[in-house]
């Protein structure tokens, strides 16, 4: 019996044996390319995140909450002026046929402006139910105030009286109206400004704190992407014994451009955001509040003349308001008005706003306003109430209007700074968003042109 020998089995290749180099090179090229693409995606994501964060900050401060603060600040001083105008009307004698109709006409204009400001604030509140309830409460309170004012004016018109001596019935109703204004309406209007201002401040703090971190992320992602692209080029040059490919060099240069442009735009937007907030928005709000305090001071002057029982209260309120605007240490209004003329350095709400040569006219107008107030109170103290009323509605009002007009000029300059900073920031972002898709496409094409020919050599 013949036994057929069994042929030996073919050798089994060792699992540890390395694959041929011609198979490992394409895999390594693909891995390096994929890593480079991932790093580039990280770079573009960091730039996009920075641009989006800056855009959200500019939009909220420049288009949403910021304008709402300005609108509600205007509401505050409009309400203050309404109450001051009614005090002027009551302080005038019923025989006046010139200033009384003018004051009433201005009251109607301010009432309409206040209603429009409330409507604008309601629209800007969006879905914020808390703010909408506050606005509705102000509207309801304003309706009650107007009813009291109408009743006070009716009682005043039914009695013939000299300047500064309204009938007790009209004065009593007006007390209720001014108490409603000062204790309910003005605090609620201020709360609207405060709530929106808190949103602006929180947004600014968050954005100003986040953008530097995102800039650092752009730098890290950019260095990583450049490192990957450079390593890919070095590998291809050494492996294929060629000089660097122009396509990959172009992709590297475009990547550098994206990183630099992203950092530049984010930094510029951070600067624009700071300018808009610190040099535009904050001073505009401060000046709006200062104007509101000024209108309230005007009302306290008229109330001082027409309400003898509360004259001391209104005088102290005038002093408190004056010190809030420009602080000078003084224990009485007389001492304040003497000291404020001699002071060279001021604190208070307008201390920084009235510093510098460009604000000198406003400071001079404020000092003249205080001088006119001194003259008015001197006449009132001498029992010459009629003359005091004439000064109040003549020299004092003229001095106040000059002072208020100077504040408006400063506010307009600050508003221009605010609007310009927001516009420049948004334009820079628009340019960046327009460039990013083309840059991404260009890098993708150049990367493919640099890698694909090398891969084809292994087919």
Automatic annotation (TrEMBL):
Keywords: Membrane, Transmembrane, Transmembrane helix. Residues 1-24 are annotated as: Disordered. The keyword Transmembrane helix applies. Residues 1-13 have a biased composition (Pro residues). The chain crosses the membrane at residues 29-54, 211-232, 244-266, 432-452. The keyword Membrane applies. This is Secreted protein.
